[in-house]
Specification:
alpha/beta; eight-stranded antiparallel β-sheet; 39% helix
């Protein structure tokens, strides 16, 4: 195949003496044996996007490697010098179980130290939420975690946190990106100043565990804790380093850990995808739950920021809850605990995102608490905490199986969330209820909201163009009717406008720009279209709702909502 000139130009740059011999050999191998892969590796720069970068490991400017990470770290170092002048700079670094994560973390530490920045580096893998905690605990100006969350084994990534412990948001992200883009690869300082690299472990672990237990414990009796039977799986990831200790120290001793998945392994050998959103990922855990007659199954993704929860339904069968359901359950439990302690006085809030269930608004209103809504991603919820210091943050989450308890960690945190859902389950069991029954009660009290995610994968350059065209078509030729229901409102977060399609009135959205479209129908249904910022996918978030008069009607009403979702998918040709 003929290789385009812009790709050849990029390849030739990487064949200069700035890059090491190992890189040269790998590029020449691709030139000879796999020109298509070479094109994928060099056709664009790997984007520094949602809080950092994520991509396939390999050579090239569209891959995760020592040079792309080195350039980002050099740019970040330069930017920190600009915004924190005359300050002794400190950075915390953590990494997950993925291939090369440990060596890449050390490389990043080397570059920071070469720029005179003190580095606090975990000597072994740790959960991502502990890195967020460590940034504030150690008084750092920034933090880095090497992870690609639940992506396939060939991926790795680089997430950047700021001094508040949250992922970078405007204006820091634009400033960092501009600084990185103005750099040449030959400006990267790779030679470490080892005296500035400090290894951290036990002291931060103890503080993080203590904080997690304090934030997610709510006067559950010792008997209730002992009676709750838990199955936990780390899905070969980092949570095995801390979650069992947190549960044990909090008093939960009846815990069964899936042994086949307890050893960290970047190949994730027992699962197709290490994503607790997928029922298959928790298959071994649910099988163990049946064997041990356990009440609840909890699984975390490789970097331990997301959690999947399965509980027994009214028929006694293990059922995987979706992210919206776990978010509603945990938020309702937190609100009730705050209410019991008479801590709600109108100066509190919970957080959610534009693609998550609207039920969060209903729930917050019922407790007299504000619900703030941000763009997709926990960095926006963390920003709410920073932007509204006069308000107390109770908790918050989003549909993608993430939750944040209080403000000690400024990112989704499966460590504290695991303990929180166990607190709820233990208290429910102690009063003769279950997590599932508590969810149905919430539907009766607040309306029955049901959500469904359709995720379409479109890989490579052609896929990127196809996703782009889909968004253009939906933006320029908006649907007027879906499944027999009129579209009454179209929110376009790229243009920051909300258009009423019934009277053509346009209002401004007071939220940062993002490539997201939301259709609202006259029956209260909501459809959100959003290209993923970290994967080659376009996602459609569908939410439908109706009243649930009695828990006895649940199955019948759920079937009605399921059929409505199926009809929307068919009408929009998303299957």
């Amino acid at each position: 195949m003929e290789i385009k000139q812009n790709i050849l130009d990029a390849v030739n740059e990487w064949l200069t003496p700035t890059f090491d011999n190992e890189t040269h050999v790998a590029i020449k191998e691709l030139l000879t044996t796999s020109p298509a892969e070479l094109e994928e590796s060099f056709y664009k720069n790997l984007e520094f996007g949602t809080g950092g970068m994520r991509g396939v490991m390999g050579v090239g400017n569209n891959r995760i490697n020592k040079y792309t990470l080195g350039k980002s770290t050099q740019g970040l170092s330069n930017y920190m010098r600009q915004v924190f002048p005359n300050k002794d700079l400190k950075v915390a670094i953590a990494f997950d179980c993925r291939h090369n994560s440990k060596s890449l973390a050390k490389l990043v530490a080397d570059v920071f130290s070469a720029n005179g920045i003190s580095v606090y580096l975990f000597s072994d893998l740790r959960p991502t939420p502990e890195l967020s905690f460590a940034v504030r605990h150690l008084g750092c100006q920034a933090g880095i975690v090497l992870t690609a969350s639940h992506n396939p084994p060939e991926y790795n990534g680089y997430k950047v946190y700021w001094e508040d412990g949250g992922q970078i948001v405007p204006p820091e992200d634009e400033g960092i990106i501009a600084t990185i883009e103005n750099l040449n690869y030959n400006e990267i300082k790779f030679t470490a100043n080892e005296s500035l690299i400090h290894y951290i472990d036990t002291e931060v672990d103890k503080a993080f565990i203590k904080s997690s237990i304090e934030n997610a414990s709510f006067n559950t009796s010792a008997e209730a804790k002992e009676n709750l039977k838990i199955v936990f799986t780390s899905l070969h990831g980092t949570s095995i380093t801390l979650v069992p200790d947190v549960l044990d120290q909090a008093g939960y001793t009846n815990v069964h850990i899936v042994p086949e998945q307890a050893v960290p392994n970047g190949d994730f050998p027992t699962v197709k995808s290490p994503n607790p959103e997928e029922p298959e990922a928790l298959a071994m855990a649910t099988a163990l739950a049946e064997k041990t007659n356990s009440d609840i199954v909890i699984g975390t993704d490789p970097d331990c920021d997301r959690l999947g929860v399965a509980v027994r339904n009214n028929e006694g069968e293990m059922t995987l809850l979706n992210g919206n359901q776990t978010m509603i359950l945990m938020t309702a439990f937190l609100l009730e605990q705050w209410k019991k302690k008479d801590k709600i006085n109108g100066k509190q809030f919970v957080g959610s995102t534009i693609v998550s269930t609207p039920m969060m608004m209903e729930l917050a209103t019922s407790y007299g608490v504000e619900c703030k809504i941000g763009l997709t991603g926990f960095k926006w919820i963390a920003k709410m905490i920073k932007d509204f210091p006069e308000l107390e943050f109770i908790g918050g989450g989003e549909e993608s199986f993430g939750f944040m308890v209080g403000d000690a960690v400024r990112d989704k945190d499966a460590v504290a969330a695991t303990l929180l859902i166990c607190e709820m389950a233990a208290q429910a069991k102690a009063k003769g209820s279950t997590v599932y029954k508590e969810l149905l009660k919430l539907y009766v009290d607040n309306g029955f909201y049901k959500e469904h995610l359709v995720s379409l994968t479109k890989k490579g350059m052609d896929g990127l163009q196809e996703i782009s065209q889909m968004m253009i078509d939906m933006r320029e030729n908006p649907l007027k009717e879906i499944n027999g229901q009129r579209v009454v409102m179209l929110e376009d977060y790229q243009s920051s406008t909300a258009k009423n399609l019934l009277d053509d009135e346009v209002t401004t959205l007071d939220i940062p720009k993002s490539n997201v479209l939301i259709y609202y129908m006259e029956d209260g249904s909501k459809i959100c279209a959003r290209p993923s910022g970290t994967e080659p996918k376009i996602k459609f978030y569908i939410s439908v709702n109706t009243e649930l008069e009695d828990v006895e009607d649940f199955k019948e009403v759920e079937n009605i909502l399921d059929n409505k979702i199926k009809n929307i998918i068919a009408a929009m040709q998303l299957s």
